[in-house]
Every structure is written in C-alpha cells, then in structure tokens.
Here is the input.
Amino acid sequence: MRAVNTGREIVYPPEAILRYGAGAVVMHFALEPDGTVRSRTVAASVPPGPLAEAVDATLDAWQVEKSSSAAANCRIPSSYYTVVRFVLR
Here is the structure.
C-alpha cells in the first residue's frame, strides 16, 4: 500500500521553518474492503501545530492504492498509516 497526494503540494509553514527545521506528521486512513478511503485524519504530529495544519489542509486530496508489486490476491487493510516528513535541505 502507499498513500498518494493527488492535489496541491504540502507547503512547509514559514513559521515552522524558523522554529523547528524538521518534523513529521502521521496520517491515518480508514479504508473500505475495496480500497475506498472512508476517512482521513492527522493521527500525530511532532512538533504539534503548524505542520499538522499544513497536512490537514491537503487531506481530501490523498488516496491509498495498492503497490504495483502487491500480489494479485492481496487484501486491502482496514487501516493504513503514513508519515509526511518535513526537512530543510
């Protein structure tokens, strides 16, 4: 499984760049047996605040899909988590 952002890019909040430099947000997807996303939420954020808000603003654009290398009979899990990392380069 993998999560794909089909919408606009997540913007690193300017106030977070100055304060943190790096961080991560964990997203949770509740899935139907056919892979349809039932709900999307921010499950955790380190540090809390602007990074979670930046991801939350794009949640509706995220989809979950099977990996191309998945076996044909691979089942869709009912729950999927993914991490969005914020790092200055």
